[in-house]
Amino acid sequence: MLQLKTGISVAALKQPLKNALPLAADIGVDGIEINARTELRPQELSKTGIRHLRKLLQDYELQVCSINFPTRRSYGVSEDLERRLDATKAAMKMAFDLGCNHVSSFVSVQSCSELERATLFEALTDLGMYGQRVGARFAIRTGGDTGEALQEFIQSMPPASIVVDFDPAELLLNKKSPTEALRQVGEHVVHFRARDAVHDLSMGRGVIVQLGRGSNDWATLLATLEEYQYDGFITLEPAGSDTIAEAHESVEYLRNLFS
User: Fold this and answer.
1) Mean pLDDT (whole number) for 186-213
2) Most buried among 69, 73, 83, 129, by the most CB within 10 A?
């Protein structure tokens, strides 16, 4: 049976990491997502720092639910690729040290040229092999690709190397079906984001909205997660003007779905 295990992004709390921990605990979530570029850089974290942070997390009864590592260039772009790969591997090692099983980043498969796709395949194969050794895998965050395209790409890679960070809101913003995508890649999902979106006809584009007020079919999405025996976090990213109040309401919304 699917269990509710909630997380929240530190970025949504609009506080430095240490100040965000008591806020997350007060909201009632079980974990936090950390940005490894802006909030906690691997190169600045010593072994003592790791122990100290783990102790703080324990004090607030929190875990690290996800490590986010955005990149300026795609892994399909050869320029400075080795530097990006080394930095990503450092984030993966940090994730493992903090008890997290993945590092997440946006990757576009369908928008790649043939040459970029070959470079992307080689780069992610490298990250996949490293992830199996270090104990924290690289997760592709869903966005512009269809579930079918993402599943096809993952299946072309060495087994169990790359996993999925499922973001239904990004799929909606890109006019993709989250429910169809989840059915196609559900076996690879290690992290799930409780984000919602809707297409605003007056603006002519999709917009992020509070959880439960968008176009996502949450009952079907959660039922599909249960079919795949998902046991990871469901992470909030409130984006309104009052993210703390929105986070409290979103946690309550999820609890009602699970009741």
Assistant:
1) 92
2) 69
Burial of 213 (0-12, 13-18, 19+ CB in 10 A): exposed
Please answer whether residues 209 and 253 qualify as being in contact, where contact means their C-beta atoms are separated by less than 8 angstroms: no
What is the tens place of the pLDDT at every residue in 39-90? 999 999 999 999 999 999 999 999 999 999 999 999 999 999 999 999 999 9
User: Could you give the CA distance from residue 236 to residue 211 in angstroms, rounded to a whole number?
Assistant: 8
CA separation for the pair 50, 44 (Å, rounded): 10
Beta carbons within 8 Å of 73's beta carbon, 6+ residues apart: 79, 80, 81, 84
Q: 85-126: per-residue pLDDT in tens?
A: 999 999 999 999 999 999 999 999 998 899 999 999 999 999
pTM over 0.90: yes
CB-CB neighbours of 2 under 10 Å: 17
Q: Strand ranges (DSSP E) for the chain?
A: 6-9, 31-35, 63-68, 102-106, 137-141, 162-166, 189-194, 196-200, 205-209, 234-236
Nearest-10 crossing angle of helices 243-258, 17-27: 40
DSSP 57-108: HHHTT-EEEEEE---SS-TT--TTHHHHHHHHHHHHHHHHHTT--EEEEE--
Residue 189, φ and ψ in degrees, nearest 5: -75, 125
pLDDT tens digit sequence for 141-186: 999 999 999 999 999 999 989 999 999 999 999 999 999 999 999 9
Cα Rg, the chain, nearest whole Å? 18
Q: Would you call 14 exposed, middle or buried from its count of C-beta atoms within 10 A (0-12, 13-18, 19+)?
A: exposed
Which among 141, 82, 59, 61 is positioned nearest to 108, based on CA atoms? 141
